[in-house]
Design goal:
Number of helices: 1
Mean pLDDT: 86
Low-confidence stretches: 1-10
Order of helices and strands: HEEEEE
Number of strands: 5
Radius of gyration: 15 Å
Distance between the termini: 45 Å
Protein name: Chitin-binding type-2 domain-containing protein
Domain Chitin-binding type-2: 19-85
Strand order of the largest sheet: 1-2-3
GO molecular function: chitin binding
Organism: Trichonephila inaurata madagascariensis
InterPro entries: Chitin-bd_dom, Chitin-bd_dom_sf
């Protein structure tokens, strides 16, 4: 089955679906993870965006974990004091 007609829209569609567009320049802690830079989700401290070939992927840190703005990695909730998730 030929799906080539969808290829030109995949980047725009992914950005629209996840609500994030990968920046053209990688700076700060995000650059530590080149070629797959990471970015915090603006509204959910348990989620992050990873850019793969300039396309955003929305990831979840998982139960009991949150995205640390200090390390740009998922860490235990008790180590991420800014995240106020309660189970």
């Amino acid at each position: 089955m030929d799906t080539s007609h969808n290829r030109g829209h995949s980047s725009t569609t992914k950005a629209a679906i996840v609500g994030f567009r990968c920046p053209s320049q990688i700076t700060g802690l995000s650059s530590k993870f080149y070629p797959f830079p990471r970015y915090p989700h603006p509204n959910d401290c348990q989620k992050l965006f990873v850019c793969v070939n300039e396309k955003p992927r929305l990831l979840n840190c998982g139960y009991g974990s949150a995205f640390s703005l200090e390390s740009y990695t998922c860490d235990a909730l008790e180590n991420v004091p800014d995240c106020k998730i309660r189970y």
